[in-house]
């Protein structure tokens, strides 16, 4: 398997607090400003101010932002509009999106969330998620104890996948594969079997986002475009 390659894109995002993809763009909140970044060139523009996100994820062209206040907002970056989704969120540990819903981990609980109504459904089991990644109808949870689980949202079943991930700092899905950085090593993970392969070392992402087949890593304010190979 060929190693991953990466190149630095323009900009300094040293105060990044959240990052996500929606459509074919990357969105970054640095300090309190929401930026839209061209995934190909890295050109960026400031959109709106006064954001204080705890977590952010993209779904269906919209961004969903969990604020430090406990509020959840749906924003349309293209229009610059936003609306509040019903509900108050406390102790949010990790968030992700599948093809039609949001998924949120709080203390020992994993729930799916209808993005239009705010109605939640609990996923069976006890969870201690550090990172969540949605892919198709499944959610993958990197747990505090180093385990990796796959939850099937259609059936409610949970599967423990092979491997041990004690130092995972970021994880994301791109196309039909999972990617995780553990102890500075970038791995590709097969979502069906859990088999994994190392793609390179020296990665230190505070945030990892995928647009198309590329990964975008924010490391100490620098933005890198990673081609997994």
CATH level 1 class label: Mainly Beta
Total helical elements = 0
Secondary-structure element string: EEEEEEEEEEEEEEEEEEEEEEEE
> Which term fits the overall shape?
globular
CATH topology: Neuraminidase
* Main sheet characteristics: 4 strands, antiparallel
Mean pLDDT: 94
> Which spans have pLDDT < 50 for at least 5 consecutive residues?
none
> Roughly what fraction of the amino acids lie in strands?
over 45%
Q: Which CATH architecture?
A: 6 Propeller
* Overall radius of gyration: 17 Å
- What is the domain total for the residues? 1
Strand order of the largest sheet: 1-24-23-22
| Total strand segments | 24
Q: How far from one another are the termini?
A: 8 Å
CATH-defined superfamily: Kelch-type beta propeller
Pairing-aware structural class of the strands and helices?
mainly beta
Binned, the helix content reads: under 10%
